[in-house]
Specification:
With 126 residues, the chain is mainly α. It has five helices and no strands. The protein is flat and about 65 Å long.
Length: 126
């Protein structure tokens, strides 16, 4: 009975060991904290760069509406592409001409939706 759980235990051990190894390597080889006496400009240079946003953002900073619109459109089209996976999984067992026509109609509808969004200017970054 225990041999059935052995792969799960080995996989869990390897995951924990890999995480511990990377954390240890980061502590040993990674950059150390900058001393407080260093100027703020030099200290800011060692900060990680993230998304093009400044390291210190004021509390009144707001993202533009176009950021959220592009994010929602990305999620929408990304989720639609996920629907193609089940079709690919059953493609060899199904009537291939019928399935191919359905997939082509689905992709054409996605392209029409993308063209509509593009023409409306929703993808223009302002």
């Amino acid at each position: 009975m225990l041999h059935q759980y052995l792969p799960v235990l080995v996989f869990g051990f390897l995951g924990v060991a890999t995480g511990a190894a990377f954390a240890t390597l980061n502590a040993v080889l990674g950059p150390k904290r900058v001393a407080r006496s260093v100027s703020s400009a030099a200290a800011r240079q060692s900060d990680p760069y993230e998304c093009g946003l400044p390291s210190e953002v004021s509390k009144t900073f707001r993202f533009g509406v176009s950021f959220y619109l592009v994010a929602m459109l990305f999620i929408l089209f990304d989720i639609e592409v996920v629907f193609l996976y089940p079709v690919a999984a059953i493609f060899s067992a199904a009537d291939s001409v019928f399935v191919l026509v359905e997939v082509l109609i689905f992709v054409v509808l996605l392209l029409v939706a993308l063209a509509y969004v593009w023409r409306k200017g929703a993808l223009d970054w302002r």
